[in-house]
Amino acid sequence: MKVKGCESEGRIPSHKPLLRRSLNNVIAEPAIFAPPNTIPAVDLAFDKRWRDLIAKLSARFDAGKLDLNAVLFLIGVQELGQHARDFKKDEKVALMHIAICVVLLPYGYYKELGRDADGWPHFERVQELPPLGPEEQERLMKEAVLAYFEG
How far apart are CA 132 and CA 105, in angstroms? Predict the structure, then answer.
């Protein structure tokens, strides 16, 4: 870097120690130049959509603040289409599976095979999910849930 008024290229004049220290820090840490709002607008819009959905569902069911698992459980109950009742532990797990399959149908990961004699839907995995980390899995599921409610 050539500094105007400095004889030696790439060097900050030593008689200006504060300027030298601050410019060297800026050069070493380019993040200082990053705009204050570096979160992409898409993420902010996504976060707002998710918060709005959670607030709406939480108010509707008067169950405190719901999380992703609670929303998936509600989708499973909705997709099962049976009257509200107490579910056994294995049925709750099946309801979560139903919800995951239903919200991922539009992405092409599952297809519905039909319903059994008790009315429970069955699915087949059409393609493998890509290897995702925990945060990426959560993001995919949230996007799929939002698409389910917004579609």
Answer: 18
